[in-house]
Amino acid sequence: MATYTLPELPYDYAALEPVINPQIIELHHDKHHAAYVKGANDTLEQLEEARDKEAWGAINGLQKNLAFHLSGHILHSIYWHNMTGDGGGEPLAADGVGDLADAITESFGSYAGFKSQLTKAAATTQGSGWGVLAYEPVSGKLIVEQVYDHQGNVGQGSVPILVFDAWEHAFYLQYKNQKVDFIEAMWQVVNWQDVAQRYAAAKERADVLLLAP
Predict the structure, then answer these.
(1) pLDDT digits (tens, 9 = 90+) for 107-135
(2) Staple 164 to which of 95, 118, 122, 140, CB 3.0 to 4.6 Å?
(3) How far is CA 201 from CA 23, 95, 133, 137, 198, in A?
(4) CA distances from 98 to 94, 111, 130, 160, 197 (A)
(5) Residue 39 CA, distance from chain mean position
(6) What pTM was estimated for this model as a whole?
(7) Which residues have CB under 8 Å from 209's CB, separation 6+?
(8) How confident is the model over 175-211, as pLDDT tens digits?
């Protein structure tokens, strides 16, 4: 039995129009995300075979492949729920996301500063990658991270709570090579309720991180 499975979308293909058209959602979820799930499962099988045979000649490539596909699966699984057709705007206490709004202000000085930083981080990833808002459990604050491909530039132990996909397959059919335009449009569909729930869950789990004395 496969370890990882492709999650269903929480909405139909047209739910995020006009920011993201249905064709992109269908291809992105049904083809690209599915490929990461298959890649992770295939790599786990290859690692099992390597253990059985004590054949470690390909270990570096297999470990890199596992990180690549598994991160692709996890980030996309968050991505779908981070968006909603009636989202966007600024997180506000009046909408029940006051703790998240306060954390953003504390961590970045202002919502405007945070928005600018995440936008630039996502839009300037080298090649393919992601812009990520993550909870960093050592400081208890939020940080912005860049993910190159599906590996790199993250603080160990940080928990992603809002992800912006900046791979070309996420936008090219609609936005062509205008990645910045796509990232700017993404703010119109952010599901702050989902982000706030992820923030609360990350804080609750923070005490499991063990630090050396």
Answers:
(1) 999 999 999 999 999 999 988 999 999 99
(2) 122
(3) 33, 18, 14, 12, 5
(4) 7, 12, 26, 19, 11
(5) 18
(6) 0.95
(7) 137, 138, 157
(8) 999 999 999 999 999 999 999 999 999 999 866 665 6
